[in-house]
């Protein structure tokens, strides 16, 4: 089962470089580092089966119930696992155990297709037990939940920081936003400073304007005073409008970053039948998402075959998404099917040579598996992301669209209908070109 809930620190978004999630350990789920066992314990049933067991050995604890629940879930006994997590919550759990119980309970509800119950459990874990939202975004066991409307509502609450459930998520989004728009803070400082200056000027100008209106000896000039007051008032209005406009742009940017992170975790099945997340293909291919009716997408793929050689030189990988396909196929409740030993990405400079070499080998093997076309896994989740993207771009959800990604995973270009492959061959540089290196 993909993971749970010790309160380990994590940084959420991986927009610059992909990272490996869910390494092998055991028992209680952690949020990023891996699975960590609070106590390596056996099930209460096995303990009770031994006639020589002491009373202490058969005593149920929140720890033992959570670990037993995880073991049952791994064997497909979801109903029994759910019962264990619920029992753990009645045994005076500490915060770590409660977080684990609520999170894994949500995974059980997601497996059973109970979106509202899963969302309620996750909301409680986020608000009261410091669950990191990145865990929800990346756990394969919650793939079916992420395709439901309840997930979208929860994600929007987290992005806005609502009810304290998304503080860390919003904080990390803002950090990335500041990197992408580094002068927003400087602009806001000047908005505030100039608004304060104009306000002070207005404070002193208004009494002078009243004296000018009354007239008499020593009264200031009416038109000059009125002009100064007007300049200050108009300045305040303009600066406040710019401040709110900048805030609106920031919210739009945060929403786009959130969608980019969701996109990076969408799963694909390669020609070798291997399932990977889109983030694992960064620096390797330029995915071109073709979303629309089956006839339209099939025709676009046929036209792309004429330019196959040139498109492959440019790292193009076709990703067809057929409208409604997610509703006709059975839900993959167990998630993406990604093992905990999924292909790693190139590590950071701080990692040792052995890890770096292993990662480069894994990346090379992955590159060898990439062909001209990939198949989407969890099509309902793909369709939901595309519809959200259409709304953000002012496109009617459900129209035929294409989306071309860069090598670094960000959106390069999108449009209605299907792409002009000849134009793409002209616009997109080959993988070996210098311009392609700048995209990485």
CATH architecture of the largest domain: 3-Layer(aba) Sandwich
The largest sheet is: 4 strands, mixed
Compute the CA-based radius of gyration: 28 Å
Distance between the termini: 33 Å
Helical segment count:
19
Structural class: alpha+beta
Average pLDDT, rounded to a whole number, is 76
Task: Give the beta-strand count.
Answer: 7
Q: Which CATH first-tier class of the largest domain would you pick?
A: Alpha Beta
Report strand %. 5-15%
Strand order of the largest sheet: 4-3-6-7
From the 3D structure, determine the CATH topology of the largest domain: Glutaredoxin
Q: Determine the fraction of residues in helical runs and give it as a percent range.
A: 55-70%
Could you give the order of the helices and strands? HHHHHHHHHHHHEEEHHEHHEHEEHH
Structural shape: flat
Low-pLDDT sequence parts: 2-57, 330-358
Domain count: 3
Organism: Nelumbo nucifera
Pfam family, one: DUF3493
Keywords: Membrane, Repeat, TPR repeat, Transmembrane, Transmembrane helix
GO biological process, one term: photosystem II oxygen evolving complex assembly
Describe this structure in words.
The chain is an alpha+beta fold. The protein has three domains: 44-172, Serine Threonine Protein Phosphatase 5, Tetratricopeptide repeat; 184-263; 267-439, Glutaredoxin (3-Layer(aba) Sandwich). It is 55% helix and 8% strand. It contains 19 helices and seven strands. It has helices at 44-49, 55-58, 62-74, 78-88, 95-111, 115-129, 133-138, 143-146, 149-160, 167-180, 184-214, 222-264, 294-305, 308-313, 325-328, 353-369, 379-392, 421-427, 434-439; strands at 267-269, 275-277, 286-292, 316-322, 375-376, 401-405, 411-416. The strands form two sheets. The protein has a four-stranded mixed beta sheet with strand order 4-3-6-7, sandwiched between helices. Strands 2-1-5 form a three-stranded antiparallel beta sheet, with no helix packed on it. A hairpin with a 5-residue loop joins strand 1 (267-269) and strand 2. The longest helix has 43 residues, at 222-264. The chain is flat. It starts with 43 loop residues before the first helix and ends with a helix. The relative contact order is 0.10. This is Protein LOW PSII ACCUMULATION 1, chloroplastic isoform X1. The chain crosses the membrane at residues 189-206, 226-245. InterPro entries: LPA1-like, TPR-like_helical_dom_sf, TPR_2, TPR_rpt. Keywords: Membrane, Repeat, TPR repeat, Transmembrane, Transmembrane helix. TPR repeats lie at residues 62-95.
């Amino acid at each position: 089962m993909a993971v749970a809930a010790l309160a380990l620190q994590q940084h959420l978004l991986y927009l610059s470089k992909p990272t490996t999630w869910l390494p092998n350990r055991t028992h209680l789920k952690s949020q990023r580092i891996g699975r960590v066992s609070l106590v390596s314990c056996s099930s209460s049933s096995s303990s009770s089966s031994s006639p020589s067991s002491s009373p202490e050995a058969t005593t149920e604890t929140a720890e033992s119930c959570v670990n037993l629940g995880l073991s049952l879930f791994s064997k497909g006994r979801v109903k029994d696992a759910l019962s264990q997590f619920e029992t753990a919550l009645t045994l005076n759990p500490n915060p770590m155990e409660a977080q684990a119980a609520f999170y894994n309970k949500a995974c059980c509800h997601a497996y059973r297709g109970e979106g509202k119950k899963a969302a309620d459990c996750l909301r409680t874990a986020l608000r009261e037990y410091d669950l990191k939202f990145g865990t929800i975004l990346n756990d394969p066991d919650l793939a079916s939940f992420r395709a439901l409307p309840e997930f979208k509502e929860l994600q929007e609450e987290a992005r806005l920081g609502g009810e304290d459930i998304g503080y860390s998520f919003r904080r990390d989004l803002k950090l990335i936003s500041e990197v992408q728009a580094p002068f927003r803070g400087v602009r806001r400082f000047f908005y505030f400073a100039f608004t304060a200056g104009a306000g002070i000027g207005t404070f002193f100008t208004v009494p002078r304007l009243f004296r000018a209106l009354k007239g008499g000896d020593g009264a200031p000039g009416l038109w000059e005073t009125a002009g100064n007051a007007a300049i200050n008032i108009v300045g305040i209005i303009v600066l406040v409008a710019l401040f709110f406009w900048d805030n609106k742009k920031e919210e739009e940017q945060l929403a786009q970053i959130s969608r980019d992170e969701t996109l990076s975790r969408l799963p694909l099945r390669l020609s070798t039948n291997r399932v990977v997340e889109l983030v694992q293909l960064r620096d390797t291919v330029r995915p071109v998402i073709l979303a629309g009716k089956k006839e339209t997408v099939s025709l676009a793929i046929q036209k792309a075959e004429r330019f196959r050689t040139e498109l492959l030189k440019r790292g193009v990988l076709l990703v067809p998404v057929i409208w409604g396909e997610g509703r006709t196929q059975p839900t993959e409740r167990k998630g993406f099917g990604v093992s905990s030993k999924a292909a790693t990405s190139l590590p950071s400079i701080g990692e040792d040579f052995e890890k770096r070499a292993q990662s480069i080998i894994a990346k090379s093997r992955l590159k060898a598996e990439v062909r001209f076309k990939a198949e989407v896994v969890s099509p309902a989740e793909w369709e939901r992301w595309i519809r959200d993207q259409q709304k953000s771009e002012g496109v009617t959800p459900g129209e035929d669209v294409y989306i071309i990604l860069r090598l670094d995973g960000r959106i390069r270009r999108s449009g209605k209908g299907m792409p002009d492959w000849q134009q793409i061959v002209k616009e997109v540089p080959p993988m070996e070109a210098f311009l392609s290196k700048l995209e990485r």
